Amino acid sequence: MTEVIRTRDELARTRAALPGSVAVVMTLGALHSGHEALLRAARQRADHLVVTIFVNPLQFGPNEDFDRYPRTFDADLEICRAAGADLVFAPSREEVYPNGEPLVRVAPGPLGAELEGASRPGFFDGVLTVVLKLLQLVRPDLAFFGEKDYQQLTLVRQMTRDLDVPVEIVGVPTVREPDGLALSSRNRYLSPEERLTALSLSAALRAGATAASDGLGPAAALAAANRAFQAHGTTAKLDYLVLTDPELAPGPVSGPARMLVAAWVGSTRLIDNIAVRLAETPSRFHGSKEEI
């Protein structure tokens, strides 16, 4: 049976009574098949599963979609129940931030100003602050995050290492539609025509990964990805398309790498990424960015 908890006091009492290992999956709600994969992975690794549902205002910019972000709690709860969640922690804004928006926040460091951070200033401050708060409240042994938000996953791992947070961070592969589109709560904003255009992101990543596996270098792999993006979705507006180290660290890139893309499709901003295998010859960091 899945218990719904609204306050931190209830959470503390209930969490203390859970024997064995505890995993947490943190969500904004509007759960889909990608979240279900996270829940299944977490349930397999731990004795108990806690799911948090909280639309965190700190990670939405002034012109972003906080107010229109979908709230589908009843449907979300059914998904959690079907996955075998023990607890769903669904606090109010006042419960998470009882003294108002926190004056002290987690700074993400240099990586927090790149890629998503460059396009969404302050985004990762808000993400890491709420993640750290929820880790403190839930006190899990494991925390599961999707690889679709790859920069977020990387920064959460870095935060827990740097701040000695006693939790194992587990990444779960991106779940895709049969045509390759990465699952996202924001996909529901797309019109049928925009839905087709959105395939330009995954098409670009596949083309880049294929070029790399064929032995081409980073520049050629990125060029192939850019060509595929432009050919597949001429109305999508590219924000960035980069090829970098798996830890998103600056410097030479060879062997295992990561290709990341972000683009606007109509009024909806989408992100995606893929693992890439380059030849074992170091090359400089490669990327392209179009200002919006």
Question: What is the element layout, followed by pairings?
Answer:
Elements: E1 3-5, H1 8-16, E2 22-27, H2 33-45, E3 48-53, H3 73-82, E4 87-89, H4 93-96, H5 116-119, H6 123-138, E5 142-146, H7 150-162, E6 168-172, H8 192-197, H9 199-213, H10 218-232, E7 237-244, E8 256-265, E9 268-277, E10 286-289
Parallel strand pairs: 1-4, 2-3, 2-5, 3-4, 5-6
Antiparallel strand pairs: 7-8, 7-10, 8-9
Helix pairs in contact: 6-7, 9-10
- The level-1 CATH class of the largest domain: Alpha Beta
CATH superfamily of the largest domain: HUPs
Oligomer: single chain
What is the second-level CATH architecture of the largest domain?
3-Layer(aba) Sandwich
Strand content of the residues, in percent? 15-25%
Strands, total number: 10
Shape: globular
Helix fraction by DSSP (H/I, runs of at least 4): 25-40%
Helix and strand pattern: EHEHEHEHHHEHEHHHEEEE
Question: According to CATH, what is the topology of the largest domain?
Answer: Rossmann fold
Number of domains: 2
